[in-house]
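HUMAN: Spend a minute on the protein record below and explain its fold to me.
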Amino acid sequence: MYIQDIPKDSKFWVVRSGDGGMFYDHFVHNSIAAIGHIDAMDFNDQIFSDKDEVVKLVLNYKNTLLEKKESLASASNKAGQVLRFINEMSIGDIIITLDAKRIIVGKITSDPYKDVDSVTLMNVDGSTDEKILKFSLRRKVEWGKVQFREKLPLAINNSFRANQTVFSANEHWKELNHWLSVAFISDGEAYISSRIEQKDGINNFDIAQYSIIINKIEAIAETIVNSGNLNDDKQLLTIFEEKYKELRKYRSFTVTTQQVFLSPGDLWAKTSGSRTKSLLVVCTFLVMFNIQPTFADKNDEIFFENNYDSISLLINKVKDDESFEEVKHGLALKVPAQKLNKKNKPANPQKKSYDDDVEPDDFEGI
C-alpha cells in the first residue's frame, strides 16, 4: 500500500459524462473528460492561455443562453461550470466521473483544449457503438480502476448529489481521501481506514476491542518516537505498557474516529502529533493487517525499515493481548484497496464489451 502526504488544499472535481452518464465509457476508454456547453461558440485553444479572454468567452456564452430565454440562474450556473472546467481545474487535480452503476477516479493530465473530432467506441463484434461523443471542450485524464457505486461509503455517495455537470467536491476532502488513499498523512496527521464487512449485526464488544487496538497503535507510535533506537525488547515492551497507561490515565489519546456504517460499512480514524508519529501510526496499522507499505518518500522507507522490528514486536503484543484475530473475524474486518496511487493504471482502451466493464472493489493485505 502506497503511503504519501496529501495536502489539505488538494482539489477534487466531478465531471458528469452526459445525461445519466451516457458517455461514461467514452471518457474512460479515450482518457478524457469533456463538456459540450460551448460547442456552438467560436473559440480556439489560444483563448485558454488568457484568463481575460476566457471570461469574455464565458460571458458571451451566458448572454447567448439569456437570449434563448434561459433563466438568469440557469445561465449563470452553466457559465460557471465552463469557467471551472477551463480556469479552476489544474493538471494533477483529482477528477471523478460516474454513471448509474459505476464510478471512476483519475488525475487531470492536460490543460483544456478544443477537439471537434467525434469520439466513438468499438463493440466486441467490431461494430461502432451508436452513442457518439461530440463535446469539444476537453481535458486529458489518466483514469484508474472502475468501481461499483453500490460499494461506496455513504459519505462518499452523498458528495455526488449536486446536479451540475462540473462541480467541486472539495468539501468532502476527508471522506474522498479515506476512500481513495485508505492510509495517508496530511499536515502531520495520520488517517487510516477500515472496512467492516459483517452482515449479521455488529457485536459491540468487537467494536470496543477494535477501538482499544487503535488507541494502542497510537501508544506504539508514541513509544517508538520517545525511545529512539532502543534494542532491548523487554525494556521496549515495558516502556510501551507505561506509555499506554499514561495515555489512558490522562485521556491524552488524540485518536478520533468516524463510523460510517450500519453493517457493513466503514470506520475511519485520525491521530494528531508530529509527522514521525503519524508515519508510525500508518505503518503500524498496515503491519497489523500484514500489508507491506511502500512510500513516496525514500526517507520514509528507510525509517520504516529501521523501526520494523520494534513495530512488529509491539503490534504482535497488542494483537495477542486484545485478541485481534477474533475481533477481525467478528467484524469481518478488512483494509480497503487503494483506488488511486502512484501506479494509477489507465483503463484498457482495447475493444471490449462496455456494458459490464466493472472491476470489483476488492481488498488487499488480508
About this structure: The radius of gyration is 24 Å. The chain has two domains: 9-181, 184-334. Residues 184-334 form one domain. The chain has a mean pLDDT of 88.
